[in-house]
Amino acid sequence: MKLFVRLLAVAIFVMSFGYAEAAETLNGAGATFPYPVYSAWAYEYNKVTGVQLNYQSIGSGGGIRQITERTVDFGASDAPLTPEQLNKDRLLQFPAVIGGVVPVVSILGVKAGELGLDSDALCKIYLGEIRYWDDKKITSLNPNVNLSHNEITVVHRSDGSGTTAIFTNYLSAVCSDWKNKVGAGTSVNWPVGIGGKGNEGVANYTKRAPNSIGYVEFAYAEQNKLAYVLLKNSAGNFIAPNFDAFEDAAASAEFDPKNHFDLWLVNAPGKNAWPIAGATFILLAKEKADSNKKVTAFYDWAFKEGDAKAKELVYVPLPNSLKDKIRAYWKANGAQ
Questions:
Q1: CATH code of the domain containing 7
Q2: Do 121 and 226 belong to one domain?
Q3: Which residues of the chain fall below pLDDT 50?
Q4: Is 145 exposed, middle or buried (0-12, 13-18, 19+ CB in 10 A)?
């Protein structure tokens, strides 16, 4: 009897090991911006299908590099690549979800939504031209907020980052000085400040450094209980970052599969639109038909089953009409 039990235990172990070996794994890398929602989707997808999604949250620059070098099944970037870049590196691209980049502050006595900034003030803070929280430009926007003469600690990303690309594209769109002196991209030469790796790093630095300001995807602000800033949008209204404001910004989007969905959403029109919004994108190697079909099967499932989880984490799901365009794009390119 004891021998039988031992043999049964060995058999179960072998079967379990064999199953683990046979389990499908998809490897992706890139943007930290969508990491919370991709992780949640991956967890649910694994329960339904047994497929593991191994996603490295290393920044958009790293994701672009890894898919270009063909070391992962898919890359992820918050900065859309141009059709020229995609053709050069033989890549496909489609959006997965939409979110918002949010300035956050750590100022004693200032709670979330109490401080308001316009594009000029935000630009000058990141240029290093506004150095103290009681600068007249800031106090004039916030007459009822008690701001002391404390030096501002500016926090930015140290790695190649799609969140940075969205943020700097916004600053370039609203501030000619920023556009001419610094410009936009996944990496820029920051005039001032300290760098943190990933949205996680910026959130942690901002949380720990007194009198600081940083920028993160909204889920990271929520998770870290950071005080978000109200922003004056293109319609002239001070807006709080929330699902409705991100959705209002997304409503202006006209993604075109003919140019691989290359589109920015910053400074979108709309009375209640959040001004620093953006889609996050998935990158595939054109020639990897088999793995591409497995990746698109995951995102097709997410498009059908993942909207509620995306909304819970304050991301805006893609409209159904856009999802259908993406499916047609997959089929046209042998990825479904």
A1: 3.40.190.10
A2: yes
A3: 1-22
A4: middle
